[in-house]
Amino acid sequence: MSEGAAARRPSHAPPLLGIGQVLARLQPEFPELTPSKLRFLEEQGLVTPARTAAGYRKFSPADIERITVVLSMQRDHYLPLKVIRAHLEEIDAGRTPALPGVVDATAFRATAARYSREDLIRETGAGAALLDDAISASLIRPAEVYGQETKDLLTALAALRASGIEPRHLRGLRAAAERQTELVERAIAPERRSDPAGRARSAERARELGDRLAVVHAAVIRDLLDRRSH
Length: 230
Known about the structure:
The protein is about 65% helix and about 0% strand. The protein is built from eleven helices and two strands; from the N terminus they run αααββαααααααα. It has helices at about 5, 20-25, 35-45, 60-75, 80-90, 105-110, 115-125, 130-135, 150-160, 170-195, 200-230, and strands at about 50, 55-60. A two-stranded antiparallel ribbon has the order 1-2. This is MerR family transcriptional regulator.
């Protein structure tokens, strides 16, 4: 959008936001969001901000909502961008596709909820002591606001505690995850060296590899349990 076009916007129209304003609005919920991540989302066709005559990006409220949906689908459902893009293209075409990996859109909207510490404890019934133990064991990072993933994790920890498995018993999981993270970092290092500016692209690739490792980890545990039950 040119500066002249921006000047002709109706006075009641919501103002367009620059990258800095978008980050200020969304980073409290999505701390990993950076200018390069926003540019990467645009490069991938997930958001199309307007441009001033000088080339500056300007984001509308609809753009902000779209970015929020993309980041939520990544964080809460571990979906790769290509799957998210296909889903949004279906919506843009006027269709109402089921959310990939989720039973229905209502379930997705529920996962967009944010929980304070008090909300998290109340919703999970886990108790403040368990949350503190999980934080002490580095299984949960302390935060002012928590997402659905943390709620699911704390619910699982509560069920494990009921069977005598405490957060302190799971410290090895954190250590194993750190080793696997190092594997991912080494795997994507050549990509980062060849494209130093593509940090968002590297982060997406790392997320995909992490998802693959999670599948392998779950399969190995199931196999070991099956072997020991025979």
